[in-house]
Amino acid sequence: MKTIPLEAYLIVSIVLFGLGVFGMIVRRNLVTVLMSMELALNAVNVLFVGADSHLSLVDGQIFALFIIALAAAEAAVGLGIIIAIFRLRKVDSTDEITDMRG
Amino acid sequence: MVNWNALLPELVLSLGALTLFILELFSSRRHFRLLVLLSAFVPLLAFLSLLFVEYPARTFFNTFEVNGLSLLAKALLYLLTSLVLFSLYDYYEAKGSPYTELSYLSLLSTLGLSILLSSTNLISLFLALELSSIGMYVLVSVLKEDYPSKEAGFKYLIIGSAGTGMFALGSAFYYASVGSFYLKEYRDENTLFSLALFLILSALALKVSAVPYHFWTPDAYEGAPTPITGYLATAPKLALYFLLVNLINYFSHAKQWFILVSVLSILSMFYANFTAYAQRSVKRLLAYSSIAHAGYFLLGLTVAKPELQKALLFYVSVYSLATLGSFVVLSALEKREGFTHHILDYRGLFKEHPVLSVSLALFFFALIGIPPMALFVGKLTLFMGLVNATLLPLALAFAVASLISAGYYLRVLVAVFLEEGERKYTPAKVSGGEAFTVLLCSLLVLLLGLFPNLLYDLIKF
Asked: How many independent structural domains does chain B possess?
């Protein structure tokens, strides 16, 4: 059986990570920005699992589990802040939260 | 077998945080001051427990290491946290947002930073970094009916989690090339390892707010409640520089380390020192000052020489005292009705609040690096370390950048002492906690300037 080389995992995860970061920059909706952040973090999980199968170890999967938990915690805090912003200002776009500049 | 003795200070902190969490369930907003003052004693207890830790020791499958340097770092960290907690209650009461959650959130952040100082493994490093950061995202955003704090919190969260992503991707590359998460010297310099080094260093540079990863700093510092800004500007910085000094032993042999660190530091020094002149808000000006200082500190990490790292650690310790002091003065002033941190509001401050003005002047003179203050000793030893390491261009850049920075601190002091104010504010009442923190910070800054060996001899490798 032919196994998938490590390079393939690397390329997939770097492309996904790049898409996530790109989304964080170009997306305007606050919730979509959070979703892009999740995509970037999950891209790393792909690489961890790929590296694990390449090295025949399990450490990477443990790290991936921690990342999943942390991404959830960060999303919870982020959604809380978005709700607080929406209550005070009724805005949901990154274009409109630019009071502080310079 | 778990060596509980090595974990003693972390146990005290986490039990303290849990106790406060339970107390908070049964108490109302009226007990805000009591809870916060109680929480200020938890880091002090952890500080005392450091005396009973036997070192060097390792535990948790060698992921947690205690040595003399990490104990010193923890002592300073607990001291700073306790000072922040002592000084914040009056500000929150004046702003009408007595959130009792503050008491344990800052303890959890400190717990994260404390674990960070002892980590020898990328997994625990990552978790510790996130434990501290998530606590801080919340701390930045909790101020009632105050929009800027929410905006600051969101920006900090998004850019901070981009940093998290970079750190995680860097760890993945490190794992794929080294085959383990333990930090160790790795001599085979392939592309994967270079990328890992670049990403991990970038993520840490983002957390210490070095240019070009500084975007969050001015906004987060300006929007956050002022006592929390004091926490943000000191405790994580202190912990991260101790961590970076730890990392330099593993990574500094890589040839891109020197280039990356010196580029980061030169960019931070000059960019921040020039941009600070354009600021109208004093709080934001201090944020740029902290970016500039990140540049100075990174100079101490360019090459692995104990002399240089000792100078850096001394400098960062006394810098955090001076910065904390100036932010506490700012938060005492902000309690006055209608006061913003615009530089025009600072005119004629000396006539209304001579004591606060003089202590602000003391901290600003310390940040410039005027001789009797401890930061002068830090600057001088760092400069001499760079000269002795034959890095003359960097030493020269450091001296020029420090010189440029003097102007913007002095501009604030001119407004405070020499100009006449137009508006009259209700005088600010300085709470006992704030007075205590300012007094202790200024005393320590002066004392360590006159007798630097008190701290300098404790920094051992």
From this structure: 1
Which residues of B are less than 8 Å from A21 in CB distance? 162, 165
CA-to-CA distance for A73 and B182, rounded, in angstroms? Answer: 25
In a domain, A26, yes or no: yes
Assess if residue A100 is contained within a domain: no
The CATH number of whichever domain residue A24 belongs to comes to 1.10.287.3510
Q: What range does the domain containing B268 cover? A: 4-456
The Cα-based distances of B267 to B12, B124, B214, B292, B296 in angstroms read 40, 30, 11, 9, 10
Per-residue pLDDT tens over the stretch B151-168: 999 999 999 999 999 999
Domain count, chain A: 1
Residue B340: predicted pLDDT:
87
Report pLDDT for A1: 59
| Residue A63 located in a structural domain | yes
- B349 in any annotated domain: yes
Q: How large is the ipTM?
A: 0.95
Q: How confident is the model at residue A102 (pLDDT cuts 50, 70, 90)?
A: low
Query: A45 is in which domain, residue-wise?
Result: 6-95
pLDDT tens digits, B92-133 = 999 988 999 898 999 999 999 999 999 999 999 999 999 999
Residues of A in contact with B141 (CB under 8 A): 80-81, 84
Inter-chain Cβ pairs, chain A and chain B, closer than 8 A: 119
Contacts of B396 (CB under 8 A, 6+ apart): none
Question: Is pLDDT above 90 for B397?
Answer: yes
Q: How do beta strands B57-59 and B64-66 pair?
A: antiparallel
